Amino acid sequence: MAGTLQALRAIALAAFLAGPLAACAGGAVVPLAMTGSEVYGYSATKKTNIDHLISAVAGEDCSIRNLGLGRQYCMAPAQPSAEPAAYCYRTIAEVTCYREARPADAGRQIQAP
What we know:
It is built from four helices and five strands, in the order H-H-H-E-H-E-E-E-E. It is α+β, with helices and mostly antiparallel strands. The strands form two sheets. A three-stranded antiparallel sheet has the order 4-3-5, with no helix packed on it. A two-stranded antiparallel ribbon has the order 1-2. The chain is elongated and about 55 Å long.
């Protein structure tokens, strides 16, 4: 397992660096477009394109960002909380629910739907 993670880490690092370095080659339109795709994708999802590919293959949450945060490259996917919002308040147009009480809005609190 450790060898697989090392290989995935090396592939991710190479792919992460390949786009920006290839864009410096001059006249390389495809690598430059890929670099733009990487920047946009990373800013939206905090994952590079190769991170998404490796995540799909590994079935885990893989991201180069994890390494920067001192974590493993691939981690088990986060499980969504089954705990529903418990504090709901009527606003002008709708009901908004929160996980924590909002004392300033206590007069508008209603039962959770």
